Fold:
Amino acid sequence: MKHLPTRSTVLIILILLSLAGLALDQNERLQPFEDLALRFVVPVQGKLTSLANSLSDLTQTTRDLRELRRRNEDLQSLADSLMIENVRLKEIESENETLRRLLNFTQANPTHSYKAAEVKGRVIGRDPSNFLSYLIIDLGSQQGIEKGMPVVAERGLVGRITDVGSNWAKVMLIIDPSSSVNALIQSSRATGVVEGHVGGSLVMKYIPQGETVNVNDIVLTSGLGGNFPKKLIIGQVTTVQQRDIEMFQEAHIRPTVDFNNLEIVLVITNFLPADFERLVP
Amino acid sequence: MVPHLTILGVKPDLLLLVVISWSLLRGAKEGMIWALVGGIGLDLFSGAPFGTSTVALVALSLLAGLGELSVFRTHIALPLIATLIATLAYNLFFLLLLYARGCSIAWTDSLIKVVLPSTLLNVLLAPFIYKALYWLHRRTGPEEMAW
Structure:
């Protein structure tokens, strides 16, 4: 019967081999064997290391991806809230700018004593028709608004109140075909009547012949007729029509107010138009 | 919102287009209901005397309702022609109303700046409104016999 080597015998052999290896290594006798073994092992080891690194990178990438997704969600949420905040601030800035211009307007026109009487109304509707030019503002009889009160913006005359409800009022713009405003040319003091036309244009009629009217002249309210206060800016002359055979001259006016972009207007509450009906016996 | 929607310098008369299309599809009776409700809505926001838009739209829905009986009811030319006539009549009605109120009307300017652009715009929009309402009519109306 053949005897198999016991575990302790194997151990002793391995220790002896290790000691022999150490002794041979000290004398550099093992170098050729070592060299031969490593020549085959190094490339395999290189591949294995690269594979291990790739696997490690993959797990890291997955972790990074999860982290990036979380951070992206956080940043997106932050960007959304900043955008909403930005829109809100821009609106506040725009409103602030409008109110500042209105304040400048009232300070530049102290003769109308706006301070005590001014009321700010927000434009909440426009006339749906192509022929009429009306606005609806969110002020009414509850705020002391009455029919006939003039309405202005920071750039000049807007119109006048024609209908009043409890918390709304309709404003007939000066460009409405039914509107007419007594006016004068600032430089020559020539008087006339500014009428609105279909399509949103303004024409100053009944300017006496002989009066000097030039392009770019400023047109103001004259206060005649008692419908509007004096010296409110209406617009600027763009063209003049003067024919010797006619009694009066006509001038086309470009309004200073941009009626399409009105947001806030002022109602002059301390001015009421003259009521001539009461004078008639 | 519509008063802010300006194309070619004019606002489209969307309610007029709806009233005309519906009257062509379902007759004057139903068109008049749209005209009445929509017209009152327009009058509330308008500076014109109350009832102006309502009266004009009801009258036009009555006329357009005659088209319901036409054999060309499903032809695209019918809403185009009806819109063309209705827009001209609607604009003329408003101009005459302003004239009656004592406004000085620059007729040529009104024609060039308002009447022609708004007619063109309404005619361009009419097929889309008619198509949309035709779909609604097919979904809600009585079954029609197919030829």
Remarks:
- DSSP finds three helices and twelve strands in chain A.
